[in-house]
Structures are given as structure tokens and as C-alpha cells.
# Entry
Amino acid sequence: MDRKRSSELFEQAQKLIPGGVNSPARAWNSVGGVPIFFARGQGSHAWDSDGNSYIDYVCSWGPLILGHARPEVIKAAQDAAALGTSFGAPTELEVRMARLVVDAVPSIEMVRFVNSGTEATMSALRLARAYTGRNRIIKFDGGYHGHDDALLVKAGSGVAAQGIATSAGVHPDYAAATMVADFNSVESVKRLLEAHRDEVAAIIVEPVAGNMGVVPPAPGFLEGLRELATAHGALLIFDEVISGFRVAYGGAQSVYGVKPDITCLGKIVGGGFPVGAYGASEEIMRTVAPLGPMYQAGTLSGNPVAMAAGITTLELLKEPGVYEGIADTTERLVSGLRSLFAQAEAPAQINSVCGAFTVFFNARPVTDMATASASDMDAFARFFHAMTERGVYPPPSQFEAWFVSAAHTADDVEQTLAAARDALTS
Ligand code: HOZ
# Structure
């Protein structure tokens, strides 16, 4: 496969942009080689700057649950843009979007829109501190919640792929207030809460971990967190930036039946445009300015073009059969890959939920960051390159999710499995 133009662009980009990328996970650091530069996308496919086509399982790292350039979403964004791209004042679209989110997510009575998942989690922590009057937080090893200072401690995603424990530049006082527990271990959270009674403002968790690769919650884990948070007067924050509107329309909290105090959203909620959101009960959200003393603001927050794309995406997701279709496509990919790996006698664990999965090159079950880290990164890298060479684009890191959209077809599944069979044989 000729990727001459991507190589040229990467050469130029590296002189102008750190690492040639605007987000480290895109740099292919953990798999090596030259990142593919994309030029266009349609449905389940994306085309690179050399004209090669790929079945895309990155899907912009999650937002594109309807696939690339879904016509209704594009039209909604175009129509909104033609009426003015930003006002810095309230618009009707924000009210419609807020209504959709409040109706969809069980724990949200009021919501504030921001511009990214990072802004959502950063604001949620500030809200938890303001509401409880406490400073410490508990996060999980391998949990990634964007690049807020307090959350770049033992983080997953690009941080784990770089092998960084805590980012340089994080103020030591912020890092010191962050305590790290083990995903799927209620006991590890209990120990921290008991050692720091009346000091913990919040426990923040991805209810389905997505940034150490996909790791679903063990039975009782989320329920245990809920009980502990309530017993210790801490708030439970679900970071549903990935799982929201993906594992189900109402997110992971609707699937597992556990209600957090604060929910963070991003990715899908913006329909491919930069949107994040945080929401909670009216009582908690009354802490947010201008109603309360916790300040948070943004010029482009609730941007009409992004709101229009988000509204249309959520409305399309409400149509009957959408999630059943995504779940079915995910299941066919996962079971097909499982049997191919078994036939090839290649050790692999495939963790999945509706619309997302990870192939861990690992002989043992992956239930937390320690077990995810035991995966064979070199084997993953070889598989990744063999797949891209065969026109399938998986995430360029062992610690990320493959995202399945409503646009992926039975034909895409067949072609992906054929590519995997060939890749494993080679
Ligand atoms: N944080 C994203 C992966 N979990 C990567 C974002 C990007 O590079 O676009």
C-alpha cells in the first residue's frame, strides 16, 4: 500500500506541530511507523491522503456512532452554520439539546454543555469539590478522563501508551490530592476512603473502562462504588464520555442500573463536533454559576453548529433497531475474531460491550490496568500494521477501543474478518 503523501505530510507536520499531531494517541508511538493522514470519510470507510480506503474502527475515537458524514447530521450542521456560527448568547438549540440529554440519562436533571470531554471531567471535579467542601479525589489506574491536571495520574489512553505515570508539569499539590485505586476492586476504594475519612470529594470512574482498552465492570463493582460513595459522603462521578449513547442510549448507567451523582459526556453527544457536557441532580447543579459559587464558562459552549449536529445524532439514535444493529455487528466481529485467534493458536482476550471492543494480545483475562499491561505490545503492533495494510484501520494502541458504528455493514464484518485471517496467517 503506497502512503507516500502521508509520509510527506508527517515530515512537514513534525516540524510544525509537536510529534506532528494535535493529540498524542494519533502519533502511532506504541506501534511505530508513520501515522495515516486522512482526507475524507463516508459511512464506515475513511480514505487517506494517498487515496487508500480503510474500514474505520477508530471513528474519531468514538463520536461517529452513525459513521462518517451521515447526510442528516451534515445537513443539520450546514443549516445551523448558515444562520450564524456562534453568538456567545443563549440559543433555542441548547434548550432542545439539554432536553434530549435530561430525558436520556437517568441521573441528569440539569446539564451544562462545554467543548470537550476534558472540560466536562475538569468541571465535574470542581463541582464535586465545591459541593462537598472536600479536596481529595479517587480515580482508577488506567482510567483516562482527559488532560486536567488532577486526572493525569496513572492515566490510560495515550498516557499509558507513552509509558508516563504522571505528566510533567502537573502541580504536585494537584497530583497529591488524587488517589489511585484498582478498577474492578471495591476493596481498593474502601481502603482509601477509610484512610482519608471526610476528605474525599469524589470517586471518578469510567463505568465501562475504555482507555485501558475496553474493560467492562465486574458484577457488583459499580454497585459497590455507589454504596461506598454514599456511606462516605463522596460524590460518584461516571465519566461516560465514551460509554454515553454508545453502550445504550442512556449510557452505562442505564445498562448496569447504577446512578452516579454527576455524569460527564462527550464524543457522541456532539455528533462529530467538539462538545462535552456534565450533568447531575438539580440540587448539585445549583452549585454552578450563575446559580451558585462554582465558576465555569466558555465562549463556544453550546455552539449552535455543534448543538445541531448533536441533536440530529441523538434523534437518529432513538430510531428503533439502531442499538440492536450496532450490538449485532459488534457481536459478529467479536465472535469471528475469537474463532480466528483460536484457529491461529494466538492468545487473545476480546473484551466487548455494545459498539466497542478491544483485542488484547494476552493469554489471561483482562480486568484492570495491571492485566491489560501484561499484553504483548509487539504482537499487537504487528497485527495493527498487518490490518492497515489490508484496508482495516484499528486504533493504533493496545490500550484503546475499536469503535463500531451503525454504518458498519455485514460486508464490512466479512472483509474485516478476512483481513484478520490473512494477517494472523502472515
Ligand atoms: N483520548 C483519545 C483516545 N482515548 C484520543 C483522542 C485523539 O487523539 O483524537
